[in-house]
Amino acid sequence: MTTAESSCCVCADALTPTSFATCGVCGHEFHLNQRSDIEGKDCGLVWINEEHLGLDFACNPCIEPPPVADSLNDVMDLDEAAAALGARSADIQAAADAGQLRHRKTGGGVYLFERGDIEAFASEKLE
Question: Does the model's pTM come out above 0.70?
Fold first, then answer.
């Protein structure tokens, strides 16, 4: 059972004896409404594990972890950057060559951009 000072690992609100569960992945407590006759919030899920016929609990961050910063998904080539901005590749390349857009250029001449730089460039263009 949780103490009065326990808080949800997802939203940081206080937990009550009828509104908490322990995540089977990270071990932290989170909101999970255990009663259908009262309102409550759910910051995770519970499901029946068919392998050992028991209940499994997981908080939302463990169910769907946030994307890892600096992952390969955050690297775009020239055509992907142009598509994200809704612009022509030649215009993006010209902006990169002019120093208006941070980029890297491989030995083979491929332009590479980070998603955050493309988003910042797009927001500057809209201002």
Answer: no
